[in-house]
UniProtKB/TrEMBL annotation:
Pfam families: NifU. GO terms for molecular function: iron ion binding; iron-sulfur cluster binding. This is Thioredoxin-like protein. Residues 1-25 are annotated as: Disordered. One of its GO terms (biological process) is iron-sulfur cluster assembly. Residues 18-75 form the NIF system FeS cluster assembly NifU C-terminal domain. Gene3D superfamilies: Fe-S cluster assembly (FSCA).
Length: 108
């Protein structure tokens, strides 16, 4: 497989299975692909940078990509840092303590 092929498969998976990112005004970028090791780095930004549950989305991407895209061994997901990146408090810990989020499973 070529790095381009792995990048394309990663991008296709995210486009097809994580539409909430774009639907909510966010975006993702496949920043780096190491063909030999299978390591992929994805950055999410736009509205994701200001979203309190972005860490949950990032965690889901990190754990699901290797299961769904063959040849991926490790995924690093980070929030994009740009001049428009909003700094919002991380709501993940607070949400995990709330009963209604105990079984939270992003729909992708």
């Amino acid at each position: 497989m070529s790095a381009e092929s792995l990048e394309r498969r990663t991008r296709n998976y995210l486009n097809n299975n994580v539409p909430q990112i774009q639907d909510h005004g966010g975006h993702f970028e496949v920043e780096d692909v190491d063909e030999e090791t299978g390591e992929v780095t994805v950055a999410i930004g736009g509205a994701c940078s200001g979203c309190g549950i972005a860490p949950m989305t990032m965690n889901a991407i990190k754990h699901r990509l290797p299961d769904e895209v063959s040849d991926i061994s490790k995924v690093t997901v980070r929030q994009a840092n740009g001049p428009r990146a909003a700094v919002m408090p991380n709501k993940t810990d607070e949400m995990e303590a709330m009963e209604e989020y105990q079984d939270y499973n992003p729909p992708f």
